[in-house]
Write a structure and sequence with these properties.
The chain is of the alpha/beta class. The chain has helices at 18-29, 36-49, 57-65, 80-89, 93-108, 124-128, 142-155, 162-178, 200-212, and strands spanning 6-11, 32-35, 116-121, 134-139, 191-194. The structure holds 2'-deoxycytidine-5'-monophosphate. 2'-deoxycytidine-5'-monophosphate (DC) binds at residues 14, 36-37, 40-41, 83, 86-87, 90, 121-124, 172, 176.
C-alpha cells in the first residue's frame, strides 16, 4: 500500500498570491497541485451557460453534479465573469457538498503517484482537509490585491479600471467571508503569511521555511 499522502492546504482571499505560491511549492516538492477555485469557476460558468443565475441553488447544484474534467480546461476560467459567478455558486451548501469528494480524493490519492498534494482555496484547511499536514493562510491588504489584479489583467491585454476592480474584489471578499457555508477564514492552526510587502520569491522562501519547520499546529 502507498504511504499516506502529505497534504499542504493554502487558503486566502483573491489575489493574495496563494496560487503562485501553491504551484511553486508543489513543483519544488514534486507534489500534485489543485487550484480548488477553478472548480467553483467551472461550475459558475456552466450555470451561466445553461441560462441560469449562479445564485440559483437548484441550477448551480445540477451544474456541480454534471461537472466533467474538460470543464476544468476552459480558457475562460480565469476571467472576472467566472470569478463572480464562482463566488455566488460557492455560497450554496449543496454545491460545496457536491465538490467535496473530488477535492478530498485528490488530496488523499494525488494523480501520477505524487507523494503529496498542495490544494489552494478558501476552505481547504478548515473543511476540505482539516487534517492537512501543513496549513498556510496567505493574505494581503485589499489595496495591494486590487493593484496586483489590475496589473495582471492589463498584462493579459484586458482593460482594467482600478476603482472597479477594487469594488468587485471587496464585494467578493464580503461574499466569501460572510457566507454561512465554509466561509473564508484561517484554520485555527494555520500559519499566516502577509504578502503585502513581499515579492513572490520572498513569499516562496518564507512559506518553504514554514512548511519545512515544525508542525502547523505548533
Ligand atoms: O481562488 P479563486 O479566485 O479562483 O476563487 C473563485 C471563487 O470560488 C471565490 O470567490 C470563492 C470560491 N471558492 C470557494 O468558495 N472555496 C474554495 N476552496 C475556492 C474558491
Amino acid at each position: 500500500m502507498n504511504a499516506r499522502s502529505t497534504v499542504i492546504a493554502i487558503d486566502g482571499p483573491a489575489a493574495a498570491g496563494k496560487g503562485t505560491l501553491a504551484r511553486r511549492i508543489a513543483n519544488h516538492l514534486g507534489y500534485a497541485y489543485l487550484d480548488t477555485g477553478l472548480i467553483y469557476r467551472a461550475v459558475g460558468l456552466k450555470t451561466l451557460e445553461r441560462g441560469a443565475d449562479p445564485a440559483d441553488a437548484e441550477a448551480a447544484t445540477s451544474a456541480a453534479l454534471a461537472l466533467a474534467p474538460e470543464d476544468l480546461k476552459r480558457p475562460d476560467l480565469r476571467g472576472d465573469e467566472a470569478a463572480n459567478a464562482a463566488s455566488k455558486v460557492a455560497a450554496i451548501p449543496s454545491v460545496r457538498a457536491a465538490l467535496l469528494d473530488f477535492q478530498r480524493q485528490f488530496a488523499a490519492s494525488p494523480p501520477n503517484g505524487a507523494p503529496g498534494a498542495v490544494l489552494d482555496g478558501r476552505d481547504v484547511g478548515t473543511v476540505v482537509c482539516p487534517d492537512a499536514d501543513r496549513k498556510l493562510f496567505v493574505n494581503a491588504s485589499l489595496e495591494v490585491r486590487a493593484a496586483r489584479r489590475v496589473k495582471e489583467l492589463r498584462e493579459r491585454g484586458v482593460e482594467a479600471i482600478h476603482t472597479r476592480v477594487l469594488k468587485d474584489m471587496k464585494e467578493r471578499d464580503t461574499r466569501d467571508s460572510e457566507r454561512d457555508a465554509a466561509p473564508l477564514a484561517p484554520a485555527e492552526n494555520a500559519l499566516l503569511i502577509d504578502t503585502s510587502t513581499l515579492n513572490p520569491d520572498e513569499v516562496f522562501n518564507l512559506a518553504l521555511r514554514l512548511v519545512s519547520a515544525g508542525r502547523s499546529s505548533d
